[in-house]
Amino acid sequence: MLSLLIPGPQSPGKDMDVFLRPLIEELKELWENGIDTRDAGNDRKVFKMRAALLWTVNDFPARSSLSGWSGQGYKACPTCNEDTPSMRVIGKTAYFGHRRFLPSTHRWRSNLDFDGRTERKRPPRRFSSVDIMDQLRRVKTSIPGKHPNYGGVKRKRGDDELNWRKKNGFAANLSKNVAQNDSRIVGLKSHDCHVIMQRLLPVGCRSLVNKTISSTIIELCTFFNQLCARTVNVTDMVKAQDQLVIILCKLERIFPPAFFDIMIHLVLHLPEEAILGGPVYMRWMYPFERNAAKPEGSISEGYVVDEALTFCSRYFDDIETRFNRPDRNDDGIHRTSRLFVFESQCKPMGKQSQVYVEKNVRDMAEFYILNNPPEIETYLNQHKEELQLRGCLNPDEAHRNEFTDWFFEKIYAMNRVHAPEVTHELLSLASKSNIFVSSYPACIVNGVRFVTHARDVRLKTQNSGVSVPGTENEIFYGQLQQILEFSYLNDFSKMV
Known about the structure:
Blueprint: H1 2-5, H2 16-32, E1 35-38, E2 46-49, H3 60-67, E3 87-89, E4 92-94, H4 129-137, E5 146-147, E6 153-154, E7 178-179, E8 184-185, H5 190-204, H6 211-227, H7 234-254, H8 262-266, H9 270-277, H10 298-313, E9 346-349, E10 353-356, H11 359-370, H12 377-390, H13 395-416, H14 424-430, E11 436-440, E12 442-445, E13 448-451, H15 453-456, E14 465-469, E15 475-479, E16 483-487, E17 493-495
Helix pairs in contact: 5-6, 6-7, 7-9, 11-13, 12-13
């Protein structure tokens, strides 16, 4: 049935209800009556299982076919319903006039720079489920297309029927999509457009257009970046709802009315859908997009193959399947240690090479390593107190230059008297690292792969950018130059 519902030359079109009717009847039975189901954990226990359809994954044309609300015409927005802001512009319908969503006291409502008129309309009404059911009761059952009953022409929709219809029955290689001759980007998929809008357009438009236009585009791109995140905060979406009204009003001052088709207007309702439905990545179409070579059957065939392989893989324990396959960027098994500094959360990748590090660079790296683990904080404070008692003029600089040697002498002195707090790990850390260190071109940290800038130069995809938070909540950005592994006694090491 799924292959028949996919748009194509042999798709059912307006007769989709014929194929959906059995599904709707089964959903009603599952919700109203339920079905007796045996508990998998207790074979003797039988419970009444009920099911409900939470949402569907579809694009806007498919939503029109499923819901019955036409996605064309003056009332194309299913959320705004009969209050959809629309107008006729040069042979097409433009969804223009988003100032009505602003507060009644907003200064832009009386601004004549938009269309030469003041805006006094109130925002669209909120239609409840009772209002929607009342609209559906007024819709007449009709025969689609041209029919002799209507004089051989299509029947016109009545005024009370609104737009309801009821029938009887991370990215591709973008460089390949650039047409250098006419400076156009062609052949983009919807996911490619998202990547450009969320990652590239905010940076590229700054030097190409003036600040008024670029700031508006960046605000819109920032919203989509926030909307498509793995976690969505309800408070952020409520704020984004108000900000989108301002953004759309700014766009009305930049672009002509013909630019505002229904897709531009529907952006206004995305925060509300995210609040009701949760993160967008759980509901968008990208996991189900069909192969352009076989648009009528690839989705259904893909589901059959996927379900068959999934079913078979459950019976294999000694081979790698989708259930026991490690992630591509798996960090591996971390070494357990009493010192946090040796519990490395970084997995090196690529060819290992031995490099010699200058003494001043190695001293800075070792001080950085000693300055971070919480187990060394007591010794750090103790050394600072000794510097204050000595009356150092610049205690911070003296601490950076002298702490490594002081820590070495301190730990070995405690080890000679068999102090219980001196473990072999602490002794290895105080003994300093080897003068030769291991260098790697890539590493995996928390499931994310990073590569050095030298390797990034040879690749079209860039993944050497890093950011480090500062002491005063500022963020410093840079590029990963080297990935070094410092070796200590007893086979301990630390990635820097």
